Amino acid sequence: MANVPWAEVCEKFQAALALSRVELHKNPEKEPYKSKYSARALLEEVKALLGPAPEDEDERPEADDGPGADDHALGLPAEVVEPEGPVGQLAVRLAVIEFHLGVNHIDTEELSAGEEHLVKCLRLLRRYRLSHDCISLCIQAQNNLGILWSEREEIETAQAYLESSEALYNQYMKEVGSPPLEPTECFLPEEEKLTEQERSKRFEKVYTHNLYYLAQVYQHLEMFEKAAHYCHSTLKRQLEHNAYHPIEWAINAATLSQFYINKLCFMEARHCLSAANVIFGQTGKISATEDSPEAEGEVPELYHQRKGEIARCWIKYCLTLMQNAQLSMQDNIGELDLDKQSELRALRKKELDEEESIRKKAVQFGTGELCDAISAVEEKVSYLRPLDFEEARELFLLGQHYVFEAKEFFQIDGYVTDHIEIVQDHSALFKVLAFFETDMERRCKMHKRRIAMLEPLTVDLNPQYYLLVNRQIQFEIAHAYYDMMDLKVAIADRLRDPDSHIVKKINNLNKSALKYYQLFLDSLRDPNKVFPEHIGEDVLRPAMLAKFRVARLYGKIITADPKKELENLATSLEHYKFIVDYCEKHPEAAQEIEAELELSKEMVSLLPTKMERFRTKMALT
Amino acid sequence: MSGASVKVAVRVRPFNSRETSKESKCIIQMQGNSTSIINPKNPKEAPKSFSFDYSYWSHTSPEDPCFASQNRVYNDIGKEMLLHAFEGYNVCIFAYGQTGAGKSYTMMGKQEESQAGIIPQLCEELFEKINDNCNEEMSYSVEVSYMEIYCERVRDLLNPKNKGNLRVREHPLLGPYVEDLSKLAVTSYTDIADLMDAGNKARTVAATNMNETSSRSHAVFTIVFTQKKHDNETNLSTEKVSKISLVDLAGSERADSTGAKGTRLKEGANINKSLTTLGKVISALAEVVSFILHYKGSCVYSANILGDILLLSVKVVLLWPFM
């Protein structure tokens, strides 16, 4: 080493670090990397002062240092070797400099140079990878190489580096375990060296980032379950190391629950949502860490917004769980199948037996007090598919509770689209609850509630701006009236003497259903009120369904007047014919509504005969 | 997209000095309203032709009878837009093309004689018509706003000190709007020009962060034109409000995927270093699109605003200057 006091070398290094941390926008406008270049110069000076790298007995030509070419480079080392003596010490110091030079070049968009330095760093540490002095540096260098290769879109290479880091961490913790040296410490005087606690904190942070980078890699490789698992682990570690901002953590956990919901993993989803509730409740008690992105003034609004968003995640949980149950228990006309219900009841016992073993395998958040708090929330919510009305009702009530909470923030004035989606979810909750309800009058009331919450939306919204949403709502209202009508008909069928009152009710519901299906179909017309020759694929199925139901509705109008009856049958036939004709001209439409097309063809062949018989009967009387 | 009629115009500019010095060949030909492109690697191959509503040949100079001047472009496109605006309709013009393709020249033009672009000509005529009005029952007001959309952020270019990112809200009747976007009253084209200049300067300043480049942001300049008619007999007033939207779409530069210096797309397989992006990664996994829109901060908002401008415009013109 040259005759420069060690203290000076350290100072240079610290100065270089300080310059590296200067934010880019603080540099002159035309020289955003000025501070980085200055840092680089200082690092090069330190490197020169340290002298040449120690001779490497296993010296292999540079080309073999890529991750693919040399399996040993990334493989797990057989033993722990601590760098000792001046040779070891020099290797470590140089490695730290090479590391920082590597990161510096990457920050200034010079990837090749960055790669060179990082690879050199790893080569210097080759023998000492598992050591207390070098493990952190090694992992960080590999992580940075992983990120570098991802920028070159070589994801598998990135994966190799990052998985190697993960394996190294695990092996180190198993075989050594003590909090390792933080790389920059070798340029710090003895008295400034870090505490064990601080070293552990930083090392764990490095590993948390490692897991996070792997989550992203798996996502790009479309290994979604694995990616979710790693996100889950990242969240878990953030909690364990107190490195989180409650609002941000909570919304992340709630969002992750949606992934699990999509995969029908309700136990995991429930766990994420419960944790989200508990951690969100910590807001205000924990101070923000450096990982929190929100600005001071934004917190209050953000708090309410996130609260609303978490509520919406809960709504989806309740709704999906109920709908999943419906799917497994419905027959071919959408009613509850008692046999299927019994089967699932029998399955329930098995599900409960397996519960413990599933729970053990899942990633759990928190320990001790936190774990208890989360369990307290979990206990109030079922994760199993509801099998009867009572169980369904519990989920319904929970979902409804969150509907009200979500609407507090997502009011219609300001958040139209979000507000409407929440109302649609509320309507869906009623709809799925009706599936479990056995009493028909009560089912009717549920559909009535749906209509009551949806109808005002069609009045309040500007149809020009909210065309799509308006159509969805009209279609849903029409279907609700349609279902109500069918229920009233079933109720009337059971009565010995169906009176004129119920007949009137049935016809009114019919009329309302027709009104909304017609509104929906009219919305498809062009400005000249012409119905499209070719219906767009995004509205094809609903349009055909609407036509089909209109046909059926006309056939179900109850009237004593034979002339009117004939007229209705004619209109009904017209609509059935439209469907058959359109499907002939557009085969893709036939695929969308197979069942309805079959029925339409039947009606087209049967109705004319029925109408003819009707006419002759009328002529005779 | 009922009600809107969309017209597409393409325009080809003259070579710049660099292209001339390299003896570049022009591979574009125009005939009537169709444009054809020759394959430079295989000139014998039949050129590919495309029909547009307007194909503007501005590659040569005014001496060429086929040359499409700024006036010609304005007369075809601008005049009709103004007419529709006076009728109370919303109109919109999108300019799209690589940096250097000539969008600014077509939209803004130069201060020299007969080189004014669509916008100055449109504004001049707008104010001319207003000032020429003799009907005392009519009164007019013109306001402008200028915003920049860059993925998750909407910035008010006429009030750049408002550091905040403007929120896009939705009103049940008025539809989506940008909250707190400045709307400044103007009485002449000079006012408008000054505001556009100031706004443009605000755009460049925003791009000092090396991860953002102004060529990746969209700029939307809106003229809100209100016509009030006061009926002296009934003492009632009626109002017609039309919006003229001028959208400068982000430059369509292609990125060098090896990560070399220059314009670079930051999307793709890049790994994000900071844990602050954990939310984005989880959102992507959950595939929740419309739902956690605010959180994800996706570009859907910009699509929303742009889409709504499109939806509400009676006449939309797409200008595509060619290099």
From TrEMBL, chain A:
What Pfam families does the annotation carry?
A: KBP_C (PF12309)
Q: Which UniProt keywords apply?
A: Cytoplasm, Cytoskeleton
Per the record, its GO cellular-component terms are: cytoskeleton; mitochondrion
What is the first-listed, main subcellular location in coarse terms? cytoplasm
Q: Where does the UniProt annotation locate this protein? A: Cytoplasm, Cytoskeleton
Q: Which residue windows are coiled coil? A: none
State the superkingdom.
Answer: Eukaryota
* MF-aspect GO terms: kinesin binding; protein sequestering activity
InterPro entries per record: KBP, TPR-like_helical_dom_sf
Record's family?
Answer: Belongs to the KIF-binding protein family.
Q: What does this protein do?
A: Activator of KIF1B plus-end-directed microtubule motor activity. Required for organization of axonal microtubules, and axonal outgrowth and maintenance during peripheral and central nervous system development.
Would you tell me the protein name for this molecule? KIF-binding protein
- Which source organism does the UniProt entry give? Cebus imitator (Panamanian white-faced capuchin)
Q: Which gene encodes it?
A: KIFBP
Automatic annotation (TrEMBL), chain B:
- Gene3D superfamilies reported for this sequence: Kinesin motor domain
> Does the record's keyword annotation contain Nucleotide-binding?
yes
Which GO terms are recorded in the biological process aspect for this UniProt protein? microtubule-based movement
GO CC list: microtubule
* UniProt keywords, alphabetically: ATP-binding, Cytoplasm, Cytoskeleton, Microtubule, Motor protein, Nucleotide-binding
Q: Which InterPro entries match?
A: Kinesin_motor_CS, Kinesin_motor_dom, Kinesin_motor_dom_sf, P-loop_NTPase
- Tell me if Cytoplasm is a UniProt keyword of this record: yes
Tell where it localizes: Cytoplasm, Cytoskeleton
GO molecular function annotations of the record: ATP binding; microtubule binding; microtubule motor activity
Q: Which superkingdom, per the lineage?
A: Eukaryota
Q: Which residues bind ATP?
A: G97, Q98, T99, G100, A101, G102, K103, S104
Ranges of residues in domain Kinesin motor: 5-323
The similarity annotation says:
Belongs to the TRAFAC class myosin-kinesin ATPase superfamily. Kinesin family.
| Protein name (record) | Kinesin-like protein
Organism of derivation: Cebus imitator (Panamanian white-faced capuchin)
Q: Which gene encodes it?
A: KIF1B
